[in-house]
Description:
Oligomer: single chain
Low-confidence stretches: none
Strand content: 5-15%
Order of helices and strands: EHEHHHEEHHEHEHHEHHHHHH
Mean pLDDT: 86
Number of helices: 15
Amino acid sequence: MRCIAVINQKGGVGKTTTTANLGAALAEQxxxxxxxxxxxxxxxxxxxxxxAPCGSPSIYTVLLGQSxxxxxxxxxxxxxxxxxxxxxxxxxxxxxxxxxxGRETLLQDAIKAWRGEGExxxxxxxxxxxxxxxxxxxxxxxxxxEVQLVVQTEFLALQGMSKLVDVVQLIRRRMxxxxxxxxxxxxxxxxxxxxxxxxxxEIRRYFPGEVFKTAVRANVKLAESPSFGQHVLEYAPSSNxxxxxxxxxxxxxxQESRDSELSELPPARSLEELAKEARAAAAKESVVxxxxxxxxxxxxxxxxxxxxxxxxLPTEAFKAPAEAE
Length: 325
């Protein structure tokens, strides 16, 4: 079983998008995949069309010992893809666990208990780490054997890479000697921009042999799909975003020879075969509108997030103190 932490301390570089869509692409290839939402914002949970009400089993209750890892697992609409959800409760976990003994390895202990001594219950566990290097990210790194760094092809994203590698090395020395960087995933890549091409070239030069060949292109379908609670392979199976994550999944599967438990799994299906299936599936689907017409009386609303579905805003928050009085 490969446990992979998807991480970067910088926000908005594509960690959650990569965890959801890479997990879906691996499941499409017949792998049993569990994705773990370690971010209190719960974006990964929402991305896959699920909710975790406060008090329900989630990664928060797992870390606090109130539920087991297996109890927090939720099935998704995609076969072989499960998620351990997150919710706003997780935002207080670092304070609640501040005095806990062994707080850095709570997730590692939960994973070991879930795995047991027999056959591994999954082929892949992907940890979607929050955009910080706090206790939750440390738990993800301690529970993983591999790290995949997600980097945006821009200068500021490149600037913090060496610091992140230092943190991984520190965790490896002090807590998790098995931890290693198994790949760097360039995201939000736009080949039309000279800056993006130059940054990608610098990343490949700085980390020779560690950067995946696939650079995930900036694609509007990747941005649209979370609002429908779907990964991109489900929402737009023939889009550039879907094809990029299928290619990335093939590269990840090619690394399975390093893991004795996964080395006997069947090889990845060809991209041509998957593309043919995607085109056939897309041909059966009607065009999806981002703002669908309101449902008729008695019909259920569509899955896209609409303003009327959101909780009301406190109007006083937008007033100056004098106006509020």
